[in-house]
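Our preliminary data section would be incomplete without showing what the modeling component actually yields. Below, a chain of 689 amino acids is followed by its predicted structure, encoded as tokens that our downstream tools consume directly.
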Amino acid sequence: MNREQARIKAQALVDRMTVEEVASQLRYDAPAIERLGIDAYNWWNEALHGVARAGTATSFPQAIGIAAAFDPALVRRLGDVAATEGRAKFNAAAAHGDRDIYKGLTFWSPNVNIFRDPRWGRGHETYGEDPFLTSQLGVNYVKGLQGEGEVMKSAACAKHFAVHSGPEALRHHFNAEATKKDMAETYLPAFKALVDAGVEAVMGAYNRTNGEPCCGSAALQRTLRDEWGFEGHFVSDCWAIRDFHTGHMVTDTPEESAALAIENGCDVNCGNTYVYLMKAYEKGLVSEAQLRRSAVRLFTCRYLLGLMEGSEFDQIPYEKVECREHLDAARRASEESCVLLKNDGMLPLDRAKLNTLGVIGPNANSRAALIGNYHGTSSRYVTVLEGLQDALGDDVRVLYSQGCHLFRDREENLAVADDRLSEALTVAECSDAVLLVLGLDETLEGEEGDTGNAAASGDKLDLLLPESQRRLMDAVLAVGKPTAIVLMAGSAIDLGTGAEKADAVLLTWYPGARGGSAVADILLGKISPSGKLPVTFYKNEQLERMPEFTDYAMRGRTYRYIEEAPLYPFGYGLTYGDCRVAAAKRTASGVEAEVVNAGGVDTDEVVQVYVQNEGSENAPRNPRLCAFARVRVPTGETVKVCLDIPADRLKVVDAAGAPVDEGVPVFYVGLGQPDARTEELTGHAAVKV
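Predicted structure:
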């Protein structure tokens, strides 16, 4: 059925409810109404990178790693995998009468906030710092989750609307101030793209935006529903409505907070403030019409999901969970996500020349470093160490040392500091080559309240590795063996002199529960790395010259406004091939490029087109991404790529937040940005057309 048909049915059902029953349905844990044949339903479920928090499911790389693949078709496939497994798990749970949290079909994903500051702990939940890339990937994940049939396979949610990216410690009382230009140019485009694509739900953020709490903002609702025509339902972030009277101090009581949220379009409350709705109603703070309006939106969604009348998706069996085709899709995502940041020729490893390989570091055999946050449970985990052991078999001896604790100065409480260091040095000395597996995990970067990083509430204080890992890195590199650093993290890390001394650096992000197998295949040359950075990797010292973390102005932030050369630029990533854009020309619909691989290895590449409106006063400081395509480039061959660039991507945003035609659009076509640092790192310049 279409939305209007579902809305009519929802209206008829809600009309039969008492006002008390209506109010009960606006909680995330909506109870059953037996007299009307309505089952209990819990709206809270997660599928950021696979179905999360409800037992076994296929585990994809963390969202930031998925973004590094620059592969919208893959993202759409992953969305469909998550929806299929979500249905399979829902069907199985419902058959046993289990309608608990994380068991429903309304997934609060994707996170399309802009990763504007490298310190933000939740940045690895996003698709990076670029509004265009985020929009393209977010739209495809939504389409994968929801499908395009008359019945939604599952319901996606665009979060967190709208200006939200830290600091985590302040989110319950913080006011994010953004200009009309920054709103329209940076913070809103991805949300609008998802609304245009038919996303069913939007989640409000914890913070205020320009003075109004996001889950009770008249201004944001006008943008969402009046300007963009959003027809789905709106959900609060969890316990965000409580923040109205405990953090933001815009109301005095729970009843007033509930009333403010309902009045401004928040249909379902993740939290417990809506248990006060009836008191607010009795006090005249909310009307029955407002309550019924929200209930109709929610039951429209339930009809669209086929929950009220059944659908073909009811037949999806539990056996689809972690089936081979789903695991293969996750494996492909792991392969495409890894970014080769440096290679002086050490990679890929030549197993024929290896007798002993040393694998050292706190993330080498860590399951936590595979999965990021908002993760599900895998029936099998393959760490980097295990992946290498499986791939090398008995041909190469693999020596292993943890080397150090992830962040503490010792592994054993009764030992002296650096108690694993001598073992690590011994392993390095006994090895022909060394892989140093370092980085973070969800205990060091993540959501406030969810991580062990209490000092910064999940955010990072700097861009350096923990001190214990820095000491390990320096000591192992000083041994002098050929050494590659395998970096597992969800955000910018400055390895300092370690990156200079290492022979290679491979960034794997959090590659998924079985990601160690893909990482091993890349290290051993079975697959060429092909990921590109969806965020800028800054030098740690550059934080001192960036705006304050609390400043949401874009000046000096992200590749579009950066004013000095970064450590590694947005869009950058090496391969085992030697590819370049040999020629490019404009076409009636965009750009055509010729990509040549002069290297000795077949590889995927990501062709990127950036545009700068020369002569425009309102264009970002640097050229911005306007098109991209992942292509396969066999060794010695030339591949032609056509990229469509609609006219609206060439507009710039003025101070009033309006898109305008201004300046002369000039395209730069390459395998990264048209900046000096990318040219220095790759040896190839973008082609100007």
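The mean pLDDT is 97. The chain has three domains: 3-320, 330-561, 579-688. Preliminary results of this kind motivate Aim 1 of the renewal.
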